[in-house]
Amino acid sequence: MSIWRRKPLNQLLEEASESEKGLKKTLSASGLVALGVGAIIGAGLFSITGLAAATNAGPAITISFLVAAFGCIFAGLCYAEFSSMIPVAGSAYTYSFATMGEFIAWVIGWDLVLEYAVGAATVSISWSRYLGKFLHGYGIDLPDNFMLSPFEGGIINVPAVLIVMVMSLILMRGTKESAFVNGIIVLLKVSVVLTFIAVGWQYIRPENYHPYIPENTGDFGAFGFSGIIRAAAIVFFAYIGFDAVSTAAQEAKNPKRDMPIGILLSLAICTVLYILFAHVMTGVVNYQAFAGKDGIAPVAVAVEAMGHADASGMITPAYPWLNNAILLAILGGYASVILVMLMGQSRVFFSMSKDGLMPKVFSEVHSKFRTPAKNNMLFMVLVSLFAAFVPARVVGEMTSIGTLFAFILVCIGVLIMRKKMPEAPRAFRTPLVPLVPILGIFVCLFMMVFLPLDTWIRLIVWMMIGFDLYLFYGMKNSILNQGSFSLQNYKTVAGSGFGMVLALIVVAFVHHSIATEDDSSLFYFSLIFAALHAMIYAYSFKKVR
Predict the structure, then answer these.
(1) Residue 63: which of 55, 52, 74 has the closest Cα?
(2) pLDDT tens, 4-46?
(3) Kindly report the CA angle at 39 between 33 and 44, in degrees rounded to 5?
(4) pLDDT in tens, 170-186
(5) Domain coordinates in residue numbering, the chain
(6) pLDDT of 310-353, one tens digit each?
């Protein structure tokens, strides 16, 4: 058997039929648009936007949102075709399994686990900062030592850990949000954005827009053109969730007509709202105010500046009630986002375990709650560690690079699917193939290139750990390949691992040569990690021969 063996389309459709029980076709184009707007407007807008403006794009963060939207449009159309063909859980992992085979499915599945896990950590860190701002409004100040990671001058981010634990425990018990509650949360999120824009518009100070595109500092990605593109890659996190539209294809009344409408119109609406939001945010207060620990909670910073200054220059908020009302709505919405992200990564891990690519313990279902509780427990610990000790910038950028990588593979998958299975039934066909998928690949890869090199190092290290697991466990326990061993398969995976080793060394040296701050720890860790894996691959390859 081959690691390139694809999971048959009819088998996937049977799984969909068994698990979905024939979902009713109830969603119209307007319903899909509403679903898309609710899914897209999430934590990214209220968390990463401030940091990206402060350190990368300045007021031109509005242009960054537009660039990021283009990547989403192309990838979204590719997602729509897949979801209309393969309406089954697993998202890009499942799509890759059907088009590019088991090995690539493993790669994308492992990448999705990273995306969801660090995404949940990012949101929990931002939730912690907003909680601090909310309590401050009532005269309660939490100590910074227990609100920040060690890399940000603190000890441990306790609130971030607690919210991850609470949401994980809810998932373990199987508590399910009703459609009514979901609707209320969506309404809250959209209301926060509209209220922020409407109220903040009257307090815009034109001088905060000058210069609109700050001059590059001399460092790549620090303002100027490179800063705008890097910010686009970073705020890409704010668009996570648009693929929820594509996954609803089985419930669309007329998917061939309504899917592109749902995707494109919801993206257009959210992009306009994002641009207006960022325009008000950087107009009310100078973008430099979002630097540091408060950058992860930009709405709170901006709302505090919505007022008139007295003779001493002190600003008294014109709507003191608005700040806490908005913060409370954001805290509630964030809790929902964390829950969904934790559920997403556990379900991908669950699917990989069901396919034999991960230990069976992660697809075991709790006898009482009927949930993958052990799976949830593992990621409660993992995400809590990220939330407690890793800076928000790092986890936010890791989420973006993981998402961009997933979108690239989905776009490649459409190209392969059109060639390998041209006659397979499609309720929706991506237009202008191969142009649209190629543009999706180019735009997403273009944004990835502009992300900091230390983010690339972390992605490569994570993928190498995934290669280890597949090489020494997944490949031998695959249900599709019945655990059969092939020297050629081993050569392919080990060879790919050696390629990752080389890439890690090159990126580490380049980053070390251009770093403006001391990166000795990351540099030497990368070299030791690469050397260790080179020896492991060489030894194990010699042994199997």
Answers:
(1) 52
(2) 787 777 776 666 555 444 445 666 778 778 777 877 887 678 8
(3) 130
(4) 888 765 544 455 667 77
(5) 9-22+29-451, 454-544
(6) 777 777 777 777 777 888 888 887 887 788 778 777 878 888 88
Report the alpha-carbon distance of residue 144 to residue 264 in Å, rounded: 42
Tokens linked to 164: 């991850």
Output the pTM of the full model. Answer: 0.82
What is the helix (H) or strand (E) element at residue 328, kind and residue range? helix 320-354
CATH topology of domain 9-22+29-451: Amino acid/polyamine transporter I (1.20.1740)
Tokens standing for residue 487: 């020297």
CA 319 to chain centre: 33
* Mean pLDDT, range 535-543, rounded to an integer: 74
Instruction: Note the pLDDT of residue 349.
Output: 83
Q: Residue with structure tokens 């705020």?
A: 235
Q: Where are the alpha helices (DSSP H) in 201-297?
A: 224-235, 243-246, 255-284
| Residue 49 near residue 281 (C-beta atoms within 8 A) | yes
Radius of gyration of the chain (CA): 23
Q: Give the list of residues 6+ apart from residue 45 with CB closer than 8 angstroms, or none.
A: 193, 238, 274, 277
Q: For residue 315, what is the enclosing H or E element?
A: strand 315-317
Partner residues linked to 315 by β-bridges: 309
Please state, in angstroms and rounded to a whole number, the distance separating the CA atoms of residues 396 and 55. Answer: 14
Torsion of CA 506, 509, 514, 519, to 10 degrees: 130
Q: Give the C-alpha separation, 137 to 427, whole Å.
A: 52
Q: Residue 317 is inside which H or E element, if any?
A: strand 315-317
Q: Cα dihedral angle (323, 332, 38, 50), rounded to 10 degrees?
A: 50
Q: What percent of the chain has pLDDT over 70?
A: 89
Which residue from 438, 429, 453, 445 is spatially nearest to 503, judged by alpha carbons?
Answer: 453
